[in-house]
Each structure stands twice: as structure tokens, then as C-alpha cells.
Amino acid sequence: MTRLLVVADTHVPLRAKRLPNEVLELLPAVDVVVHAGDWVDEPTLDLFEESSRVLVACWGNNDGSGLRSRLPETARVEVDGIRIAVTHETGPKEGRERRADERFPDVDLLIFGHSHIPWDSVAPSGMRLLNPGSPTDRRAQPHASYLVVDIAAGRIDADLRLIPRRQA
What CATH code is carried by the domain that includes residue 153? Predict the structure, then answer.
């Protein structure tokens, strides 16, 4: 089994001064850390690179030239036979699965961010789509959030973790 920590839209330091402790504690504890963009500052990327065993990450629409020079628009990795793409934006929720199938025909799991809204669905092709929400900026959501994803024997198990308001 391979365990992933999945986050997006951290927006440090603009919308939060720091990441929640539970996210910081998981960085070195999981096998792979995935960040789906909108870091906002390079020190947060530095922290993830220093603390993670493996980091798979992309840039988001709020990320400037420094982050864009260090990260791809879409990152790809294979984990235990599961082909994963990580991108920031996928467009409106209506038609998302169809668009994902067209844009990522060779992917088993698409991880995305941007909306700050947790998402878990399956495209017609069988591709799983996951958005972890944001661990720092819940917007209209009741809680900030992130995902812990376990991959084993071709199976993807996603656990949405909610962060109490006092910590986010």
C-alpha cells in the first residue's frame, strides 16, 4: 500500500499564516505528497520539498513566475500501477468528468484544486476525480480539508479529513 497526502490551495501567507499542524505532521509520514496548486509563495514549496519523501505538484492560477518556473502546469506520476495526473483547474463542475476524460485519456486518477470544494467522482472512463478542498481557506465550506489516499492492488481509497475551524 502507498499512502498519499493530497492538498491544494494552501495560499500561504495570503489567506493563512501557516499550514495546520496535522498537515505539517503528515508531510514526512506519508509515501507521497501531492499538491494541486495555488501555493502562492515559494517558501511553502521549499517546506514541502524538504519535508516530503516524494512530492508531486503543479502550479495554480495564483502562483507567480517563481513557482511556475519550478513546477509544471500538470504533473504526472504512476503509483502502484495507478496513473495519476495533478492539475489545478478543471473548469465548471457541470461536465467536469467528460472534459477530464477528453483531456486525460491515459489517467486513472485526476487530482485537482482551484474551487476549495472537496470533490470525489468517477468519469465515464472509470477515471477517479479528487479535489481535497483547502486546508487553510475553506471559503463557503463548513470546514477546511485535505485528503489521505491509499493506493493498493489497483484500488484507490480516499479519506476526506476535516480541519476544525480554530485550526484552519
Answer: 3.60.21.10
